[in-house]
Write a structure and sequence with these properties.
By secondary structure, the chain is an alpha/beta fold. Helix content is 35%, strand content 32%. The chain has 4 helices and 9 strands, in the order βαβββββαβαββα. The chain has helices spanning 14-27, 79-96, 113-124, 155-171, and strands at residues 3-8, 32-42, 45-53, 59-65, 71-72, 75-77, 99-105, 129-133, 146-150. It has a 9-stranded mixed β-sheet with strand order 5-6-4-3-2-7-8-1-9, with helices on both faces. The longest helix is centred in the middle third of the chain and has 18 residues, at 79-96.
Length: 173
């Protein structure tokens, strides 16, 4: 069972690495499901985060500055979109995909009880996992899989290493 967690400071390329791995695996006929999150910037300033299901492309708002909903700093978490898009994508990935992708596991996501339950199901399963882990949550997930700390200096090397791990795994099934 291969579970890889990627962590690091904001802006080092965690989501970019995940998307590159997903795309490279797709070219080899390996399907990935789950979700990614991406910053939304206006005039160079981060104002929120969107969430997108990898299998359907469905998008929504994960959190937005000043929005209603449970607060994480200045952001209000949109539990409805997290559950409808992210959590549902996690369950579909468990059933249908070769690889489960979760970007990210952190305080915003844990505002949803449904996310917590879905993550528990993913971690109980034997399904391979590639997840971005918020740097403040690293300790909580020690022992669940391999952890890579991404930086601008090592991101190419780690990207190649992660790709190699999944390529070898899926070649031998």
């Amino acid at each position: 069972m291969v579970r890889i967690f990627i962590s690091g400071n904001p802006g080092v390329g965690k989501t970019t690495l995940v998307l590159k791995v997903v795309e490279a695996l797709k070219e080899r006929g390996i399907s990935a499901g789950g979700f990614i999150t991406q910053e939304v910037r206006e005039r160079g300033r981060r104002v929120g985060f969107k969430i997108r299901a990898l299998d359907t492309g469905e998008e929504g708002i994960l959190a937005w500055e000043g929005s209603p909903g449970p607060k994480i700093g200045k952001y209000g978490v949109n539990i409805a979109d997290l559950n409808e898009i992210g959590v549902r994508a996690m369950y579909r990935a468990l059933k249908e995909a070769d690889l489960v992708v979760i970007d990210e596991i952190g305080a915003m996501e844990f505002k949803s009880k449904a996310f917590s339950r879905a993550l528990e199901e993913v971690l109980k399963s034997k399904k391979p996992l590639l997840a971005v882990l918020h740097r403040r949550w690293v300790k909580r997930f020690e022992g669940y899989g391999e952890l890579y700390f991404l930086s601008i200096e090592n991101r190419e090397q780690i990207g190649e290493e992660v790709m190699k791990r999944f390529t070898l795994l899926f070649e031998h099934r």
